[in-house]
Amino acid sequence: MAEPMLKPPKIAISPVAWMRQNLFSNWQNSLLTLVVGYLVVTSAGPLFSWLFFEATFLGQEPSDCTGTGACWLFINERLNFFIYGFYPDEQQWRVDVMFLLLAVCFIPQFIERFPGRKWFGLFGLTGLPLVGVFLVPGGILGLPVVQSSDWGGLMLTLILAYIGIIASLPIGIVLALGRRSEMPIIRGICVVFIEVWRAVPLITVLFMASVMLPLFLPEGMNFEKLMRALIGITLWQSAYMAEVIRGGLQAIPRGQYEAADALGLGYWKKTGLIILPQALKMVIPGIVNTFISLFKDTTLVLIIGLFDILGTVQSTITDPAWQNVAIEGYVFVAFCFWVFCFGISRYSQKLERKLDTGHKT
Amino acid sequence: MKKQAIDSRPASPKPWYDPRIRSLFFQFVAIALVFWGGWTLVDNTLSNMQSRGISTGFGFLGETAGFGIIMSLVPYDSTMTYGRTFVVGLMNTLLVSAMGIVTATIVGFIIGVARLSSNWLVAKLALVYIEIIRNIPLLLQIFFWYFAVLGSLPTPRQSVEVAGSLFLNNRGLYLPEPMPQDGFGLVWGSIILAIVAVTGLRKWAKKRQLATGEIFPTFRVGLAILVILPVLAYLVAGSPLTWELPALKGFNFGGGIAIIPELAALWIALSLYTASFIAEIVRSGILSVSGGQTEAAKALGLPNGLILRLVVIPQAMRVIIPPLTSQYLNLTKNSSLATAIGYPDLVAIFMGTTLNQTGQAVEVVAITMAVYLTISLLISLFMNIYNRAVAIKER
Q: How many domains are there within chain A?
């Protein structure tokens, strides 16, 4: 098709015409626009002045918060606790290294033309957790040990969500393959496992992990609280992961299975070389979405007494030295989660659009 | 099909290459592993419980609980049994879930439709609501409503008062309670009669429409029957209803219906959070109805209201209902976050206090999980029945 001689004008319609079409098309619409617009303007004004214009940003003491707006000073002063929990100050560089590595691995994923971004992502999924397992708890290469009870804040939230996803991925793949298996007993076991975990709320799983897991293990063997929570989260998440991956497996056209059979490939070669690479690529958006919901759900660990980012804020806002900083604290946590979740969901939508080609049967 | 392919092979392969024998072997191994794992767990648990002096069995359900619960739908006091605490917790869970489902559906549908509004401002506002609410953890939203909003309400003595019968303070919202007197049974009877009458009317109207093509205004007449009949019965019986007003007694209110702040916070947070997901479901459902359907309905001369009611909504519902039920299920499961703010739901009461007092973790956790499993299976059963009913009938 030949290129048109002239590109269409940037603004096809004037702002007035746009407003007439989108805001004031008839009298009901005009009335709606005026009422809603009035409500937005009257509520946005006080909101912004509370958030920014009349808020206190600088100072040292709680008494410096004199304005009628938000007291962001509180966040400034406690930021270290909100990010690292009780992690000792002189060791925090270890966590910073992990944050940096995380950024290096995943920020390129948002940039389309970044050279070798696939390898960065792959390292993020395999090497990064390995580095973390040694760097964060310490105990080798002369690094002092930091007990997991001292971990907290944003760092703990990220650890829980990240390990939850990475560990549940292989279990989820096995369960999804099991559910699609032709062997009735194996299929039955997988279906029961998946459906039971999916039916119960995460909080009961966490309770179970913290109360019942010690009973299940042989005497003398026990895990720390964080480890128990991680086991619970991983098992629970793997059921959801299995369902996401099963969606991908079902979306593979039957011809792919038959072609692999025709080539004489065995089950594992067929699955590993033909089916899974296609299926996993297809479900990346789904995996990202489960990651978002897991990331939000990790806040539940504060109920069993771990200090994630919400837990650290919740325990600080009751500090009598600071009066009425609850809303500031919650807004801060909400902002942190929102930035992560909104960013990741935008990424997954972009990915979905990109992958939405060529797989329609 | 597969079997034939195997049987028709010329030379029989070695037994360990035979797929049937292999599959039997793997299944046997899987069963053995599951049994071995299960047995180890049971064995470990029993020996652990023995060494810690924890008793087993469900006998504890009959023992006296000895703790109070701030809210219960069934009569309860601390002399009742642990079994009773289970019922109280379950009822509270079901109450907040039902309340949340109703409001989340209403708010979600409104926002979902607003998202598709031709009015730019309304559509963008709905988008902002959805993107903010669904990207913030539910627990944080519950905390926000409970500690930041409801916690900052005035004390009972400085309650916000509406018309001397409705009070709002940091202990809760107090509403007048209707107290049916003798003769109110007549009103209940008339309500049942009205429902039966309207059902009959609908059947008759449909039959008539199919036979003659004439449309009977079922909705208006039905609504009139539903309103007029009970009102008449109420007046005939001599207005057998009094209202008990809440009143300040000492430091707190007594009488009337009290909505405790824990319930209110949980209800608001669950409704708003789930509504943001329902809104997206509704939007995609409506968008899934192809434009040709609306155009065809217009070509037939149907007015806009009827197009929506007879053409768009029935088709959109087919897409909306399955994800909607899974949101209802999520809401029910999320109601267990009640335990973080102390609303006495199943998890907070039974898995919290009862478990701590009796120490019988295995039984309590098993019962709690069984309840959620049952709810979830029931909802998916209904969903499957519904799906079969509305599925496109292909002939």
A: 1
Nearest-Cα distance to chain B for A143, in Å, is 35
Tell whether B188 lies on the interface with A, counting CB pairs under 8 A: no
Which chain A residue shows the shortest CA-CA distance from B51? A219
Q: Which amino acid is at B223?
A: L
- Region A330-358: what's the mean pLDDT? 83
Q: Say if residues B92 and B343 touch (Cβ distance below 8 Å).
A: yes
- Segments of B143-231 assigned E as strands: 160-162, 166-169, 172-175, 177-180
User: Which residues does chain B have within 8 Å of residue A183's beta carbon, measured at their own beta carbons?
Assistant: 23, 26-27, 30
List pLDDT tens digits, range B334-348: 999 998 898 998 998
Inform me whether the C-beta atom of residue B118 falls under 8 Å from chain A C-beta atoms: yes
Residues of B in contact with A185 (CB under 8 A): 27, 30-31
Comparing alpha-carbon positions, the chain B residue that sits nearest to A211 is B361
- Residue A98: inside a domain, yes or no? no
Query: CATH code at A195?
Result: 1.10.3720.10
Contact in structure between A295 and A157 (CB atoms under 8 Å): yes
Q: Is B82-176+245-390 assigned to CATH 1.10.3720.10?
A: yes
Q: Is residue A155 part of a domain?
A: yes
Quick check: B191 contacting A, CB < 8 Å? no
Q: Residues 6 or more apart from A216 whose CB is under 8 A from it?
A: B41, B44, B45
- ipTM for this prediction: 0.87
Does residue A241 lie in a domain region? yes
* Residue type at position B376: S
Residue B394 predicted with pLDDT over 80:
no
pLDDT in tens, A98-114: 888 888 888 887 777 77
Query: Exposed, middle or buried by CB within 10 Å (0-12, 13-18, 19+), for B219?
Result: exposed
Strand runs labelled E in A158-273: none
Most confident stretch, A72-76, A140-144, A334-338: A334-338
| Residue A10 banded pLDDT, cuts 50, 70, 90 | low
Q: What is the pLDDT of residues A166-191, one digit of tens each?
A: 899 999 999 999 998 888 888 999 99
In a domain, A162, yes or no: yes
Contact at CB, B376 and A198, closer than 8 angstroms: yes
Query: Read out DSSP for B286-337?
Result: HHHS-HHHHHHHHHTT--HHHIIIIIIHHHHHHHHHHHHHHHHHHHHHHGGG
Looking at the complex, does the CB of residue B136 fall below 8 Å from at least one CB of chain A? yes
Give the DSSP letter string of A297-356.
HGGGGGGGT--BHHHHHHHHTT-TTS-S-HHHHHHHHHHHHHHHHHHHHHHHHHHHHHHS
- Give the domain ranges of chain B: 82-176+245-390
Among A123-137, A252-266, B367-381, name the one with the lowest average pLDDT.
A123-137
pLDDT, chain B, mean: 84
Q: How many interface pairs between A and B have CB atoms less than 8 angstroms apart?
A: 147
Closest residue to A29, CB basis, from B26, B48, B118: B118
Whether the CB-CB separation of B24 and B32 falls below 8 Å is answered with no
pLDDT value, residue A59: 74
Contact A201 B23 (CB under 8 A): no
pLDDT at A360: 44
Please report which residue ranges of B53-137 form alpha helices under DSSP H. Answer: 82-115, 120-133
Residues 293-322 of chain B whose Cβ lies under 8 A from any Cβ of chain A: none
pLDDT at A322 over 80: no
First-residue to last-residue Cα distance in chain B: 27
Which chain A residue has the Cα nearest residue B369?
A200
Q: Provide the residue range defining the domain that includes A225.
A: 73-87+146-355
How near does any CA of chain B get to the CA of A122, in Å? 26
pLDDT of residue B110: 92
List the beta bridge partners of residue B253: B248
Per-residue model confidence (pLDDT) at position A11: 59
